[in-house]
UniProtKB/TrEMBL annotation:
CC terms in the record's Gene Ontology section: cytosol
Pathway: Cofactor biosynthesis; thiamine diphosphate biosynthesis; 4-amino-2-methyl-5-diphosphomethylpyrimidine from 5-amino-1-(5-phospho-D-ribosyl)imidazole: step 3/3
Protein name in UniProt: Phosphomethylpyrimidine kinase
Reactions accelerated catalytically: 4-amino-5-hydroxymethyl-2-methylpyrimidine + ATP = 4-amino-2-methyl-5-(phosphooxymethyl)pyrimidine + ADP + H(+); 4-amino-2-methyl-5-(phosphooxymethyl)pyrimidine + ATP = 4-amino-2-methyl-5-(diphosphooxymethyl)pyrimidine + ADP
One Pfam assignment: Phos_pyr_kin
Described purpose of this protein according to its UniProt entry: Catalyzes the phosphorylation of hydroxymethylpyrimidine phosphate (HMP-P) to HMP-PP, and of HMP to HMP-P.
Length: 266
């Protein structure tokens, strides 16, 4: 039997299983691709927040990446928590030399507001990582961190997209989930615009949403879909996962990565 499409996530571990590497691999399994991982950091994390984080040495990240790519190969790469400028620059170099689309989720803070990227790494994200991205997927807080643009209404999503595109990604998906009303995202390459809307579900258990969306986009790109097709399919998947999110622990529970397997459809 032939192997399914292969997707590599380069991200941190979430010990609670709702975000990070764990969310990425669950998403990839649910969407029918083979997920592989490069661990960049370990966090002590649960439904209440991040209690600690420890980044891995650059040489360990490089070794994991080369081990997978040189032997198994990849059809898409996704990045998440990279923690430091040194890791950002190393991962950007590795991705730039890999012939596969890259989905960059410029993770800055956790769902609970805990910092997951050193302030000193922001310039490396702007100048090294975003230029090698096929699709960048910042939320509104990350847009503000990276560009200084603060979005308070749907009309400002274009301004945010233009500001991120200045750093060189081929496409940017500005996630408007923090706005009121429907969950509205803008996907653009500076010429074409795709507005994606979904009803907002009254469910507070949304831990891992950003990781899940970026991984779903990477999975669809690995299947050969165009960027607009991949993002639209990923948006549908993550909307279902949010609707099915469940309580876990004493805080914010995760989205349900397996909803598409247990409730039919992908």
């Amino acid at each position: 039997m032939s192997a399914p499409p292969r997707v590599l996530t380069v991200a941190g571990s979430d010990s609670g299983g709702g975000a990070g590497i764990q969310a990425d691999l669950k998403t990839m399994l649910a969407l029918g691709v083979h997920g592989m991982s490069v661990l960049t950091a370990v966090t002590a994390q649960n439904s209440l927040g991040v209690q600690g984080a420890w980044e891995l040495p650059v040489r360990a990240v490089r070794a994991q990446y080369r081990s997978v790519v040189d032997d198994i190969g990849v059809q898409a790469v996704k990045t998440g928590m990279l923690a430091s400028a040194e890791l950002v620059e190393a991962v950007a170099e590795l991705i730039g030399a890999t012939d596969a689309p890259a989905v960059v989720d410029p993770v800055g803070v956790s769902k609970h507001g805990d910092p997951l990227l050193a302030a000193s790494a922001l310039d490396s994200v702007r100048t090294r990582l975003l230029p090698v991205a096929t699709v960048a997927t910042p939320n509104l807080d990350e847009v503000a961190q990276l560009t200084g643009v603060r979005v308070e209404s749907e009309d400002q999503l274009r301004q945010a997209a233009d500001a991120v595109l200045e750093y060189g990604p081929r496409w940017v998906l500005i996630k408007g989930g923090h706005l009121s009303g429907d969950a509205v995202d803008l996907l653009t390459d500076g010429r074409r615009e795709h507005w994606l809307r979904a009803p907002r579900h009254d469910n507070r258990h949304t831990h891992g949403t950003g990781c899940t969306l970026a991984s779903a986009i990477a999975a669809q790109l690995a299947k050969g879909r165009s960027v607009p097709e991949a993002v639209a399919a990923a948006k549908d998947y993550v909307t279902g996962a949010i609707a099915a999110g469940f309580a876990l622990g004493g805080g914010i529970g995760p989205v349900d990565h397996g909803w598409a397997l247990t409730r039919g459809g992908r």
